[in-house]
Amino acid sequence: MQELDRVDRSIMQRLARDARLSVSRVAEEVGLSQSACTRRIQALEASGQLKGYGARFDHRALGFRVTALVDITLSTQVEEELAQFERAVQEIDGVVECLLVSGAHDYRLKIICRDLDDYERLHREHLGRLPCVTTISSSFVLRAVATRSEADALFK
User: Could you tell me if 32 and 97 lie in one domain?
Assistant: First the structure.
């Protein structure tokens, strides 16, 4: 994997803040020609360091008023059963992130729901039926205090 230089980091920061920026605008902001900037962006994509582009949404404005952080402990650490759990969790609508973690629990899920009734339904119909689960512990986000783009966190 190639080491990112100052220009690559600057390109990544700009694209993270606004993925709709034109290449010519990014090139202008980082002090490159459009063709040089295009080559760098293509190289970042080809290396897998730049994985894609996307939009950020205001969940509350879209009617999703509950964000739950769910810690899950499994009964086993057998690779086949971990894979079975991971396949099953990927099928659950509302799960926006599933992380294998160290510590007291095995996985942490981030779930976005319309309301508590929607979360209760998701828990009953999906979380409670996941394979090998021994404990489920849910916390609800009251307010986001700090949110940064990945580029801001990675390339300071």
Answer: no
The string of DSSP letters for 23-72 reads HHHHHHHHT--HHHHHHHHHHHHHHTSS--------TTTTT--EEEEEEE
Q: What is the CATH number of the domain that holds 28?
A: 1.10.10.10
Q: Is the pTM of this model over 0.85?
A: no
Domain that holds residue 14: 6-47
Helices 34-47, 6-17: axis angle to 10 degrees equals 80
Mean pLDDT, residues 79-100:
96
Which residue(s) pair with 78 in the sheet? none
The average confidence (pLDDT) of the chain is 92
Residues in the chain: 156
